[in-house]
Design goal:
de novo design (two linked rop proteins); mainly alpha; two-stranded antiparallel ribbon; elongated; 6 helices
């Protein structure tokens, strides 16, 4: 009787021990026969990172047109006076009155009708108009920085220096060689001297501004 009971207990224990093994076997079979998802063949993105350097170019200084009003005014005034000198010269040549003779020493006829009244047979009025046209053309200039401004001022000073040198020479001729002065010529010389003074001041200011620039790195 006891042996039969013992046999049943042993069989029950064996069946209990076999159940987990069967469960694990079933799980392994299910895993073995489970469909495998195909691996993705899409190529990985290997695009290199953009190495474009940041733009470090300095902002360009756009050139702007700058007008020198003193040069414009003096150029126009000098051109008008030189034109008047040409008109007086032509009237004297035609034997007409000019209204420019005030005395023996202040006399347009004595100066403009002399051998020094022309240069290469061209009246000084024409040369004066040509000079002041150059002044008018140089009254405006494109400048992008202080260096450009200094170069423009130097060029204007060079033109004005040529004009004042001519005025000094003609004044010497009038005083020493002719012994008389032409009022309209004196007005032209005054415009030329004023032009030189304005050009010299502008040049000194531009040069000082250029010299005060910090040294380039």
């Amino acid at each position: 009787m006891l042996s039969g009971v013992a046999c049943r207990e042993i069989s029950m224990r064996e069946s209990t021990d076999l159940q987990p093994a069967k469960t694990e076997a079933r799980a392994d079979d299910a895993t073995a026969f489970a469909p495998v998802a195909p691996a993705s063949n899409a190529p990985a993105s290997n695009a290199p990172a953009s190495n474009a350097p940041a733009s470090n170019a300095p902002a360009s200084n756009a050139a702007t047109t700058r007008m020198s009003w003193p040069h414009l005014v003096l150029g126009a005034l000098g051109f008008a006076i030189s034109f008047g000198s040409l008109v007086v010269h032509n009237r004297l040549k035609a034997g007409q009155a000019t209204g420019c003779d005030f005395s023996e020493t202040i006399n347009c006829e004595s100066v403009l009708s002399s051998q020094y009244g022309t240069l290469f047979h061209v009246p000084w009025g024409v040369w004066g108009m040509a000079f002041f046209v150059v002044v008018l053309l140089g009254a405006s200039a494109k400048e992008a920085n202080v260096a450009d401004r200094a170069r423009t001022a130097a060029w204007r000073l060079a033109v004005a220096s040529g004009g004042i040198a001519t005025s000094i020479a003609l004044t010497y001729v009038s005083k020493v060689l002719i012994g008389a002065f032409c009022p309209i010529c004196i007005a032209t010389h005054a415009a030329t001297v004023s032009l030189f003074v304005v050009s010299l001041i502008a040049f000194l200011k531009a040069r000082k501004a250029r010299n005060n620039l910090p040294p380039a790195a």
